[in-house]
Amino acid sequence: MKSVFSIPIRVYYEDTDSGAVVYYANYLKFMERARTEWLRALGFEQDELMRRDGVIFAVRSAKIEFLKPARFNDMLQVTAQVSRRGKASLTFAQEIRRDGLTLCEGEVKVACLDAATFAPQPIPEGIGSKIDKGTAAWT
């Protein structure tokens, strides 16, 4: 669970406020995209998990620190790294960087839920084993 997954994200005009700085809520969207692509890279699509396994992943908590602004047209790297795995949850350490400079750090906890009842559900074994293995290509 020490491997770091990363995706590039370009800042578009729609991502910014009137000062051409990324609007604070959009950092959370960028982090969501990285977690979704991380899951996809492991071989899982969220809609398939809901249909096939009857589970969804939902954000339970998020802590975020804004260190430096991202601006219109910046090319960012957004990371996702599992820092802790519980029976029915994953905690991610996430960063948003530009040219190696950390702009934003976050810790996001997602819960595995039953898709029908929204009750906590253990992470299915097939998903958990792939998470535990990770991939050396992401480091």
UniProtKB/TrEMBL annotation:
Gene3D superfamilies: Hotdog Thioesterase. The lineage of its organism: Bacteria, Pseudomonadati, Pseudomonadota, Gammaproteobacteria, Acidiferrobacterales. Belongs to the 4-hydroxybenzoyl-CoA thioesterase family. Residues 21-104 form the Thioesterase domain. Keywords: Hydrolase. NCBIfam families: thio_ybgC, YbgC/FadM family acyl-CoA thioesterase. GO terms for molecular function: fatty acyl-CoA hydrolase activity. This is 4-hydroxybenzoyl-CoA thioesterase.
